[in-house]
Design brief:
Elements lengths: L2 H18 L45 E3 L2 E4 L1 E2 L14 E2 L1 H13 L3 E2 L2 H10 L7 E8 L3 H12 L5 E4 L12 H9 L3 E4 L12 H19 L5 E3 L7 H9 L4 E3 L6 E3 L9 E2 L6 H9 L11
Parallel strand pairs: 2-6, 2-12, 3-4, 5-6, 6-7, 7-8, 9-10
Antiparallel strand pairs: 1-11
Helix pairs in contact: 2-4, 2-8, 6-7
This protein binds zinc ion.
C-alpha cells in the first residue's frame, strides 16, 4: 500500500471511531432536521433523515393539571399457535383481534395521540382531540413492525413502542432499522431499559446504566431526543423515578390501573393492560370506565 493510500485508510478508521463514540455523558442528543440524508455509504444509523423531534423538559414545579387519557398496553400481536418460543400467553393478542380492537376504538370516536401531544396537554395546557387515547406496546418484538404498524397505518392511528435496547439484535425483536421505520412512520419510540431489568433491586450505577443508557442507545438509533420510558414489570420506587427524571425522560408508564394522567405524576402514569382474552367490546368498556379496568400484565 502506498503512503497516500495508507493515510487515507487511517483517516477513514479515525472517522469511523468518531461515529462510534459520538455520545458523551450528559450531552444533548445529536441529529437535527437539517442533517443531510444519506441513502447509502454512511452506515445504518444515518440511512434516513431523522424526524424533527424537539427535546422536551419537565418544568421544576408544573401547575397541577389532569387529563383523561387512557393508555392501552400491548406486548405481542402474534399468532400464538405459531410461536416457536412461547411467550406468556396472556401477553399475546391474535392479529385479527388486534385489528378488531383498533377498528372498534376508532369507530367509537377515540383519537390516538402522541407523547408530544400528551406532554403539551399536561404541561402547556394544549387541547387534545376528542376522546384521546394512547396505544402502547412493550418490549420491542418484531410484531410491532410486522403486525401492529400496518393496522395502525391503515387506520390513521399512532402508538408508542417501548424498546429493550439490549435486544435490538436478538431474534424475534426489532432491529435498529425497524425501530427507525416505526419512528419514520410517525410512531413514538420510548425506552424500556437495556435488559428488562427489575429496576428497584439494582445498585444505583446499574440502575443508571439501564435507564440513562437505554435512552442514549435509542437516541443513537433515532437521531433525535427520546421522551418516553416504561418500567419493566411495572416495577419502580422513588429512587427509580428520580433516575428516570435525571436521565431526561418526561413521560413514563407503569402497570398500575387508571385512565387519568397528571402533570404532577407524569413519570408514573397508569395504563390498561390488554390481555389475550380481552375483546373489542371489553376495551371500549375499559376506556369509558372511570379508573379503567385495572392494570396488571407484565409491563
Ligand atoms: Zn416489558
Amino acid at each position: 500500500m502506498t503512503l497516500p493510500r495508507l493515510l487515507g485508510a487511517a483517516l477513514a478508521l479515525f472517522a469511523l471511531a468518531l461515529v462510534g463514540c459520538g455520545e458523551t455523558k450528559g450531552s444533548t442528543p445529536r441529529g437535527s432536521a437539517a442533517a443531510p440524508s444519506a441513502a447509502s455509504g454512511s452506515g445504518p444509523h444515518h440511512a434516513a433523515e431523522p424526524r424533527p423531534v424537539a427535546a422536551l423538559h419537565l418544568p421544576a414545579s408544573p401547575p397541577p393539571r389532569t387529563v383523561q387519557v387512557p393508555i392501552l398496553t400491548y406486548h405481542r400481536v402474534h399468532t400464538f399457535a405459531t410461536e416457536y418460543t412461547k411467550s406468556i400467553p396472556d401477553e399475546t393478542v391474535e392479529p385479527a383481534r388486534f385489528a378488531a380492537e383498533m377498528r372498534a376504538v376508532s369507530r367509537a370516536g377515540y383519537h390516538t395521540i402522541t407523547q408530544t401531544q400528551l406532554f403539551g396537554a399536561l404541561f402547556r395546557g394544549r387541547s387534545l382531540p376528542p376522546k384521546p387515547v394512547l396505544v402502547t406496546a412493550d418490549d420491542g418484538y418484531a410484531d410491532d413492525v410486522t403486525q401492529m404498524l400496518p393496522v395502525l397505518r391503515r387506520m390513521g392511528m399512532v402508538a408508542t413502542f417501548y424498546i429493550i435496547t439490549g435486544r435490538l439484535h436478538e431474534a424475534g425483536f426489532l432491529t435498529p432499522a425497524q425501530v427507525r421505520a416505526l419512528d419514520r412512520a410517525g410512531m413514538d419510540v420510548g425506552a424500556h431499559t437495556r435488559t428488562h431489568a427489575d429496576l428497584p433491586t439494582l445498585p444505583l450505577a446499574s440502575m443508571r446504566a439501564e435507564i440513562a443508557g437505554s435512552r442514549r442507545d435509542l437516541e443513537r438509533v433515532l437521531g433525535h431526543p427520546v421522551a418516553a420510558f416504561a418500567y419493566p414489570y411495572g416495577r419502580f420506587d422513588a429512587t427509580v423515578v428520580a433516575e428516570v427524571r435525571r436521565a431526561g425522560f418526561v413521560l413514563a408508564v407503569t402497570t398500575q390501573g387508571g385512565t387519568s394522567e397528571s402533570s404532577l405524576a407524569s413519570l408514573t402514569m397508569p395504563r390498561i393492560h390488554v390481555g389475550r382474552t380481552q375483546t373489542a367490546a371489553g376495551i371500549l368498556a375499559c376506556l369509558r370506565a372511570v379508573g379503567g379496568c385495572g392494570g396488571g400484565g407484565g409491563g
